[in-house]
């Protein structure tokens, strides 16, 4: 469903009217393409407080001065008090106006120190600072906060957030663990030699995820219900992968996937999902349970089965799909909201154990309003409100969720674990 308002605001009369009436003015977002894999030029490297972070070791293209930076990396890991916050203000205040359109601001923070409430206050303050800047910076620019202790472990995350791949990710806080992340990979095709399975991959967001993981070199398996087999085969054929017709709610779905993948699996993307909206007073048990079965029970069951059978091998990645409706709640979606909040609980609890016992990370993406068949069926006025109620004043595209999934699936993202990353343009819902 085309966003006609976005096209209109790009015309001269559109610009005039939106300015006069104070209407939202979405900027066309710059996204990854083979012709434009990254922004031109270095990112501006600023520091507040005394930092011990070795950013040079990441090989990121950083410079200490730039007139019109495409990205700004503010290292505030050394901020321990209110004076340090003043340094963060002093560093960004003079340059924020010069950040290029669709530019990126990434603030680096430290984990909160439970034994030092001044440090914890200052570091938590950075979250409110980054989120507020995200709401005012406009022009397709994004602002995110990464809490880290080791720059090298966070390299894949910083590259993603500073790139056109993260066009619809803003106002997020990502925590990256420490420690060396030893993974060798091909920079252009980081998933080459790896197998990825995408549930619900025949269309919509799942199709985009399969495409993006294939672009990154993965051999993809496109799983969908038997009724969608023709579409799943069409996607798989285009990507040089295979299709698997399977209802993910089948009791033995995990075993059947394991049988279909005797050589093992590296990336498991739980994308299949359904909605059956009704207010609770009108919701029969069948509508409740079908949503809980597809969106949550099958995710729990297949993840357990594929970890237990060893099909998901060490170095593997699980990426589950939550939703901002699971974080904020949504009228008419008690079933859907419950299922998606359940996904968040699964990720937070399983992540440390899956990494310790199987060498597998577990994270979630939480899409906001994404332009798909699911959102095209929402009544016009509610759809228009959903599209605009975010800092970028527009809906995201399936590829935005796909790029976020590809970052979490990256071989160098082993220190990103237990995270729930919203792909919502900093939606006001659940903020
Ligand atoms: N579109 C959005 O704005 C949005 C927002 C938040 C979250 N999400 C989530 O993103 C995911 C994808 O959404 P979408 O908009 O692309 O949906 P979609 O309806 O376009 O595609 C979902 C796919 O999942 C498949 N599927 C459904 N039940 C299945 C089952 N039992 N077994 C196997 N496959 C099954 C469908 O056949 C379909 O191909 C879902 O989990 C959805 O809840 C979407």
Characterise this structure.
- With 431 residues, this protein is an alpha/beta fold.
- The protein has two domains: 31-175, Rossmann fold (3-Layer(aba) Sandwich); 195-423, Rossmann fold (3-Layer(aba) Sandwich).
- 38% of the residues lie in helices and 17% in strands.
- It has 14 helices and 13 strands.
- It has helices at residues 4-9, 12-21, 82-92, 117-136, 155-161, 204-215, 229-239, 253-260, 285-308, 324-328, 334-358, 373-376, 380-388, 398-409; strands at 43-49, 62-63, 71-78, 104-109, 142-147, 173-175, 195-199, 219-224, 242-245, 265-270, 312-321, 361-367, 420-423.
- The strands form two sheets. A seven-stranded parallel β-sheet has the order 9-8-7-10-11-12-13, sandwiched between helices. The protein has a six-stranded parallel β-sheet with strand order 2-1-3-4-5-6, sandwiched between helices.
- α5 (155-161) links the parallel β5 (142-147) and β6.
- α6 runs parallel beside α7, α8 packs across α9 and α9 (285-308) packs parallel to α11.
- The protein is globular.
- The protein starts with a helix and ends in an 8-residue tail after the last strand.
- The mean pLDDT is 94.
- The structure holds nicotinamide-adenine-dinucleotide (NAD).
- Residues 199-200, 202-206, 224-225, 228, 247-249, 271-274, 294, 321, 323, 367, 369-370, 372-375 line the site of nicotinamide-adenine-dinucleotide.
Q: Encode the helix/strand succession as letters.
A: HHEEEHEHEHEEHEHEHEHEHHEHHHE
CATH superfamily of the largest domain: NAD(P)-binding Rossmann-like Domain
Name the ligand types.
Answer: nicotinamide-adenine-dinucleotide
Mean pLDDT: 94
CATH architecture label of the largest domain: 3-Layer(aba) Sandwich
Overall morphology? globular
How is the biggest beta sheet arranged? 7 strands, parallel
Annotated CATH topology of the largest domain:
Rossmann fold
Distance between the termini: 26 Å
| CATH top level class name of the largest domain | Alpha Beta
Number of helices: 14
Helix/strand/pairing class, anyone? Answer: alpha/beta
Taking all Cα atoms into account, the compactness measure Rg is 21 Å
Helix content: 25-40%
Order the strands across the largest sheet as they lie in space: 9-8-7-10-11-12-13
């Amino acid at each position: 469903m085309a966003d006609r308002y976005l096209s209109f605001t790009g015309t001269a009369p559109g610009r005039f009217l939106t300015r006069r009436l104070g209407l939202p003015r979405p900027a066309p977002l710059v996204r990854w393409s083979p012709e434009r894999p990254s922004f031109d030029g270095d990112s501006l490297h600023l520091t507040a407080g005394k930092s011990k972070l070795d950013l040079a070791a990441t090989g990121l293209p950083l410079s200490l001065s730039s007139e019109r930076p495409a990205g700004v990396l503010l290292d505030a890991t050394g901020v321990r008090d209110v004076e340090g916050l003043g340094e963060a203000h002093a560093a960004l205040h003079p340059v924020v106006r010069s950040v290029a359109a669709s530019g990126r601001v990434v603030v680096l923070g430290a984990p909160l120190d439970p034994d030092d409430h001044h440090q914890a206050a200052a570091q938590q303050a950075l979250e409110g600072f980054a989120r507020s800047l995200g709401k005012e910076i406009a022009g397709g620019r994004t602002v995110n906060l990464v809490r880290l202790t080791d720059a090298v472990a966070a390299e894949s995350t910083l590259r993603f957030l500073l790139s056109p791949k993260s066009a619809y990710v803003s106002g997020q806080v990502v925590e990256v663990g420490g420690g060396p992340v030893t993974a060798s990979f091909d920079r252009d095709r980081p998933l080459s030699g790896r197998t990825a399975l995408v549930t619900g991959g025949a269309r919509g967001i799942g199709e985009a995820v399969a495409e993006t993981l294939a672009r990154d070199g993965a051999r993809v398996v496109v799983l969908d219900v038997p009724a969608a087999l023709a579409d799943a085969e069409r996607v798989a054929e285009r990507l040089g992968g295979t299709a698997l017709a399977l209802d993910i709610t089948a009791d033995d779905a995990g075993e059947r996937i394991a049988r279909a993948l005797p050589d093992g699996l590296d990336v498991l993307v739980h994308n299949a999902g359904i909605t059956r909206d009704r207010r609770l007073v009108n919701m029969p048990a069948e509508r409740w349970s079908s949503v809980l079965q597809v969106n949550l029970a099958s995710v729990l069951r297949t993840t357990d089965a594929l970890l237990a059978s060893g099909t998901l091998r060490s170095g593997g990645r699980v990426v589950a799909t939550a939703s901002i409706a699971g974080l904020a709640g949504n009228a008419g979606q008690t079933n859907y909201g419950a299922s998606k909040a359940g996904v968040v609980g699964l990720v937070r609890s399983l992540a440390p154990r899956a990494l310790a016992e199987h060498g597998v990370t577990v994270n979630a993406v939480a899409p906001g309003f994404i332009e798909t068949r699911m959102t095209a069926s929402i009544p016009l006025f509610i759809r228009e409100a959903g599209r605009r109620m975010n800092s970028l004043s527009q809906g995201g595209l399936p590829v935005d969720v796909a790029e976020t999934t590809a970052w979490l699936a990256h071989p160098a993202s082993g220190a990103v674990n237990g995270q729930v990353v919203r792909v919502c343009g900093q939606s006001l819902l659940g903020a």
